[in-house]
Amino acid sequence: MQARVKPNGRTIKPSKLALAIVGLLTLNAPVFAEIGDVPQMEQGIQIGDLAPGRAMVWSRADRPSRMMVEYAYNPEFTDAFTIRGPYAMSETDFTARQDLTGLPEGRDVYLKVWFEDLTNARHKSEPVAGHFHTIGKRDDIRFVWGGDIAGQGWGINESFGGMKIYEAMRQVQPQFFLESGDSVYSDGPISASVTAENGQIWTNLVTPEVSKVAETLAEFRGRYKYNLLDENVRRFNAEVPQVWQWDDHEVANNWSDSKDLSKDNRYTVKDVPLLVARATQAFHEYAPLRPHNAEEPERIYRKISYGKLLDVFVLDMRSYRGPNTANQQAQQSSETAFLGAEQVAWLKDELKNSDATWKVISADMPIGLNIGDGVDAQGNARWEAVANGNNGPAAGRELEMADLLKYIKHQHVQNIVWLTADVHYAAAHFYDPSQAKTKDFSPFWEFVAGPLNAGTFGPNSADGTFGPQVVFTKTPPAGKANLSPYAGLQFFGEVNIDKRSRAMTVDLKDIDGAVVFSKTLPAEAEQDHHDRDR
Predict the structure, then answer these.
(1) Which UniProt keywords apply (predicted)?
(2) Which residues lie across from 304 on neighbouring strands?
(3) Which of 271, 392, 474, 501 could bond to 426 as cystine, CB 3.0-4.6 Å?
(4) Which run of H or E residues covers position 50?
C-alpha cells in the first residue's frame, strides 16, 4: 500500500493495521494471471514425422517456459497421458518438440499442448488442441505433398482467404503431408501490396522480418513465424503430420558452393556459409522433424516407414552438392556430387532392403527438367539441378543419378515413384529407357506439385538423358509467368494406396481441390509374396 498525496500537499501514510489487513487479504486471495503474464502460443502446434508407434509434437512459446503435452485416444481425454516436455529457451527461439512414443497402430490421437512459464507462479498458456491418426496394418494410405510457400512476394492475403490451399489439403483428410522444400523464401521480400495479373492488387500481411532478404538469425526465424500467421496453415498443422525437407530458398536462391553475393546489393552479409549456418539453425528450430543422432545432428535425409504398403525416402539435394557448374564433366568427382556419396550409399541400401510394396522418393528437385542458374565466367550455361540441357548421355551430376538408377534396376527394386516440387507448376513425367540416351534403368514415374502459395511459372524443357516423357503439365498461358494465387494455378498432389489391390493413385489438384490429372499405378507382381493382411 503506497502513501497518497492530498490536494493540499499533505501526505497520508497508511497505518500499520491497514497494512496488516491488506497483507492478510493478499495471502488468501486467488491469483489471477494477466494475459501478459501467461505464455502465448501464437504459432500453434505442428505434428511431424509420423512413423509406426511415434510422432513428433512441435510448438513455440513467447518466453522461457516448459512444453507440456497431454494425449489420449478419445476426444474426452479419458485415461490421458501427460508428458513433461523440454524447456523452450531463447537459444532455440522458444521452440520445443516432444516425441510421442508407444502409440498404437490405427488409432486417433487427441492432443493438448501448453507451456508453463519458469516463474514460481508457473503460469500456464491456454492449451492448443490437435489430433491425428496413426496408420494401421489394415488401413489404406492417403497423403498429400507440395512445396514453394510465400515465394515471389505472394504472401498471406487475408482478403483472398490466406493460404487457402492448405484448407483444400486438409479437407481430403490425409494421414500425412510431404513438405517438399522451399518452405520459406528467405531471399524474397514481401511488400504490403503487389500488382498481380490483370492489374489486380494483392495485399500481404507484412512483418519486419519478411520486408527484406533474411540475413540475421532473427530474420530467418521470422520467415517461419510469418507462414504460421495464416489460419489455414495452423489448422492444417494441428491435424496433419508433416515430413519436411528443404531446398534452396530456405537460404538463398540456387545456393551452392558457387554462390556469389558480392554484387547483390540486397545483402550486407556476403558470406554464404554464414547465411547457410543461420538458415540451417532456423530450419531445424521450426521444422517438426525428428532430430538425427549426434553423429550428424543437422541431417535431413531419412526413411520413414508406413508398414508393408509404403516406405518414404526423404532426400536432401542441397546440403551435399558440389558447386553449380556447366555440368558437363565426363567423370564423377566432388564437383559433380548432388546427393553426395554417403547419401547415395544410404539410399541404395535402404531401397534394396525395403520390404514395402511402394517406395516413394521425396525429392526437392525434378530429375529430368532443365533448371538454369545463369551463366559462368566463361558465359556457359550453369545448371541448378541434375539435368544439363544437352540431351546426351549422362554427364556431370547426371552420372550420379545414372549410377543410382542402374543400381535400382540391377537389384530388381520395383514400385518406385518420385515426388517433387520446385518448378512451380504441376506435371507428370514418365521416364522411359527406350527413349533415353542413357538407357540402363527401369522405367518410372515422377510427379510434380506446387506451388502452394507462390508465383506460378513453367513449363521447363526436358532433358533427354533419361528419356522423360511429359505426360501432363498445367502451367500459365504462353508468355505469362509469376502468376499470383489469384490465377488459381496453385497445385498439390494427393496419393492414395489401396490396401487390398495395392494400387497407387496419384492425383494432381488445384487450389480448390479439383483434380487436374490422375494416374493409377498397379503394384509390380514381385511383391505378391507380401502378406496383404500383415
Answers:
(1) Signal
(2) 312
(3) 474
(4) strand 45-51
